[in-house]
Every structure is written in structure tokens, then in C-alpha cells.
């Protein structure tokens, strides 16, 4: 035992002769052992001669060498053990989770609601102007063509792009108004009936969306199917909002200005309910989204219709152009500053 203790204290680091006598392309990866490794190998082999290590010694040395790579020898930090050089690791490339694509809709901010209300008003007066200038059928065909072109561009986009998205919203606004007006003017269906019908259509789309995707959140619009549900819902909300706005202003005879104030008060309900009563954020969003349509349309109609109909008489054409200016300015601002950029974290 005395000799072995001396060996533990004085033996120099040992390099296997094979690594020196027979160089190879991997010669720089020779196995180097500490004195502790050699001493343990000798005890196990039952011999004081270490010139020709037996298989048991080799296995122990390999094990000790692996432990040295972890920075320890027999459970203790190793300062003497030399290990094989480890090849430089390649940079780890993060793999995005499945279905975590970029969002196709903007973040819901104050700027979002401002642009949304402006587009609803512009869509109302633009639809009325085209209907009176071109006639219901040509105007409807033009509106449908513009809607298809805008939605194709939106679906082909790989992410939320302000000009593409808001162009689609404008065309949905124009065509949604036309759809509601055609149902009333051409088919002769009262606004009360059409409002109920559009409400049921909206409910059907939302139910199908939830059953299919288990969410109605607009922050999860990252797949084609969810995007289809989203735009079907948007189209239904515009048609419903148009019918409800005309119902309050015409059928209920509140007038356009009074209707605008009514919907201003109503749109505050989901905001306050979500803040103070714990209303679900998704429900609050779609409630407010529906009301933006009659809100913007009521004030736009009030500015455009003649004074004989309790309006300002500015004309639907000039009002449309007047609303286009701030819409273009705000969308250009959003596109330049990314103020309304969507949050692309995976959110259900």
C-alpha cells in the first residue's frame, strides 16, 4: 500500500503509447489520464506494473476520462485530468413551434378602433354614392369585384400588412353596406327582419369558428382556416351593423345624429364591462366590433344626407372623399411606424 500511495502522489500524467507510436488523423484526440486514474487502474488489476495496461485498466481510464470531461474525477473537481478536445459545437438553430406563424391582423389599439370607425363611415357613404350613380346592380358587381381582389391580396399576404389589410376592410365595408341595402331595397325585406337574419348568420359563423378552432381570439389568426372564419365574421358584422343602423335611424325614426349618439353610448358598454365587470375580452371585442359599423355609418349618413332628412346635406360623394383622407393618412402612419403591428406571440 505504501508504494501505491507514493504512486498516487508522484506519478506523472500517463498517455497511452498507442497514441504516440501509431499516429492517426485523430492523434490529437489521445487519451490522457491523471495519476488518480492510473492508481485506481493498478489496484483493480492487482499489479504495480502500469507499462502494459490490462482491459480493466483501459475501461477504468475511459470512464475517468469521461468524468473529466464533466469537470470532475471520482466525484471531486479535477485540476490535473486532461480530456479529449471536444469538437466545436454548431450554433443551435431554434425551431419554431408548429402553427406559430405571423399574425394576419393588427393589434387592437386605440388607433385600430379609430381607423375602423372611419372605414365604416366611408363604406356607408361610398356604397350610397355608387348605388345612386351606377344603379344597385352595377354598383353591387363593382363592390363584389373589389372585395374579391382585396381579399385575395390579403390571403396571399404572409403577415399583417397595413395597406393590404385595411384595403380589405374598406371593401368589406362597401360591399357589406350594399348587401344590406340590396336585401331591403331590391328584395323589400324590412330592416327588422334583415337585422335578425344577419344576427343569426353572425352567430352561426362564430359558433362554427369556435367548434372548429376552440377560440375566437383575433390574436390567433395564423392559419388559412382561421383567416377564413375571421373574414366571414367581419363581413357578417358589417351587414348586421348596416341593418341595425338603418333600423334605428329609419324604422324607429331616431334619425342619423341621434342614432350616432346612441351607438356611441352602447359601444362604451363592452369596454366598461370588460374593465370593471370581468367580461371576457373576446366577447367584448366582437360586441364592440359589431357596434362600430352603425356608429360610423350613422354619423357619415348624417353628414351626407340632405337637410330634408335631418342631415347636413354635404353629399355622399364629398363625405366619402373627406373620410378617405384621414384613413389614408393613418394607414400610412401605421405602415411607416409599425404602431399597429400585431403581436406575434403564440396566443390562443
List the helices and strands and how they pair.
Blueprint: H1 2-10, E1 14-15, H2 17-21, E2 32-33, H3 35-45, H4 55-69, E3 72-73, E4 76-77, H5 110-134, H6 136-156, H7 162-186, H8 191-213, H9 224-251, H10 256-276, H11 281-304, H12 316-337
Antiparallel strand pairs: 1-2, 3-4
Descriptive account of the structure:
The protein is 66% helix and 2% strand. With 348 residues, the chain is mainly α. A hairpin with a 2-residue loop joins strand 3 and strand 4. The relative contact order is 0.11. The C terminus is likely disordered.
Give the structural class: mainly alpha
Largest sheet: 2 strands, antiparallel
Span between N and C termini? 69 Å
Approximate helicity band: 55-70%
The low-confidence runs, each spanning 5 or more residues with pLDDT under 50, are 4-11, 16-75, 77-100, 344-348
Tell me the strand percentage band.
Answer: under 5%
Q: What value does the average pLDDT take?
A: 77
State the shape. Answer: globular
Tell me the radius of gyration: 37 Å
**Count of beta strands:** 4
Strand order of the largest sheet: 1-2
Number of helices: 12
What's the short version?
This protein has 348 residues and is mostly helical. 66% of the residues lie in helices and 2% in strands. The strands form two sheets. The chain has a two-stranded antiparallel sheet with strand order 1-2.
List keywords for this structure.
mainly alpha, two-stranded antiparallel sheet, 348 residues
